[in-house]
């Protein structure tokens, strides 16, 4: 069976928040062609995607024959560094058990005051600066970077270095060697940090791993874990803050609905993982009435699963009052995103504070003039120019900006 359509597919012009038409128009289970001529199965419907992600007969191990690599860079990067995301049990189970206690909902909730302070400080600076401003540079990128740096114990002063390396890792650079070199460079940097923390631990995750796992994990293995958390922990959340804000300010009536929580609906609506969930069958299995043989690749499309009308009525409409927590934006099954509680908390605080402090915010350019990152693992907007109506106001006592006067938004109706 052959198929001339190549995955990943381009999104439609004028529909930057919707999955590619070539994905939404397909049968629930069909073949698709990859860059190397291989033809894995493409799974697009909610029930079938969840079935694949929960099935122990499918593997995330990139070294398995038939695993669907989306491009040459992905293949080279995966071969160079195997992370938690590319491990099956029991190896996956052992490493996840080490990290899971550090990302519980309760532990993340303890970070709320600090994240709120970081959000307010960043908005203080943005509102005191040029208007319009680029929300990506001023807010969406620095917030998750600050949070994950403090959590891991990585110096935020080094952000230009690791953000530059991360861009190389998550973008589909035409030269695989550059991605491999970037990964090695970041891993060497983190190994040095792990060694320093083993000698002089601090109150952070890398220190804890360096001390408590010194018999079970090598410094290299701890650094690889750190690289995964550092790159995924800031890039994905930054993309969601920027894209989610673009959706909110172009749906004004919902942006001003203070009683609605936008987080789950925006996660469902946007589903930013461009390369989707890739697997390979370890045994014959049937999905959606189609037999998938052992050794055949599978691409489970979370973005279309989250737009399946059988799971989400009227799925192409943004509805912040929708009950959408059963989305698969964070995956499903044993590879459900470990950092989901942290991402949810950051997004909740970011969106709520933007809505409260900058209710007049709007795009400073037409939506069709924004540039989006289509050639990347995580779909996002390159820049998000925004503007707001500003007046000088006194910040109420008790906030993180107590007793300072800062340019803030004026309230508007509608």
Automatic annotation (TrEMBL):
**Could you tell me which residues belong to the region Disordered?**
392-414
Q: Does the keyword 4Fe-4S apply?
A: no
* Statement: the UniProt record of this protein carries the keyword Nucleus: no
Q: Which PROSITE patterns match?
A: CYTOCHROME_P450
Name it: Cytochrome P450
Q: What is its EC number?
A: 1.14.-.-
**What's the source species' lineage?**
Bacteria, Bacillati, Actinomycetota, Actinomycetes, Pseudonocardiales
Q: Which family does it belong to?
A: Belongs to the cytochrome P450 family.
Gene Ontology MF annotations: oxidoreductase activity
- Which UniProt keywords are given for this protein, alphabetically ordered? Heme, Iron, Metal-binding, Monooxygenase, Oxidoreductase
Comp. bias intervals (Polar residues): 392-401
